[in-house]
Amino acid sequence: MATHKQNLIYAYDDETRQIIVIDAETGEQIKQKDDRVQPILQYLHEKKNEIRLRKFAIWCAHACNPTIKPVQKKFLKLAKKAVRKAAGRQQLQELYNDSESEAIAVDTVGLRQGSSKAPGFLASRECINPDAYNGARNAARFHCLWAELNQDDEEKVA
Q: How far apart are alpha carbons 104 and 28 in whole angstroms?
């Protein structure tokens, strides 16, 4: 893992709908990219289409997880049950709450060390966010972060 990744902070600006990459040591903004997905998710939210929002979050999780760990399978299984309306908000909330400490560890340690597996775990967890809109938004952000981290790896190989 390159040390350069350890010094980056990835943020999302809701107002400008931009993904912002900041150098943690200098505080300087390195780059900024448009996020075209969030307006679509906002539209689905306004239409109260929770099933499509949750399906999108599931897609994001699968896209950034070449291998899925058992705990992630648990997240995805419950999310798919929610899509079929075989699981309710309470079940989602319970598992979401139970996985909070693991998510915090992955977020603070895994992402800080530039692990390309960390966004996949976090995207998987967002599939069970009781608020389907916030889950889809966060899963999209983690998917973008995963793509960004992997793009850096591909550029070094080329």
A: 25
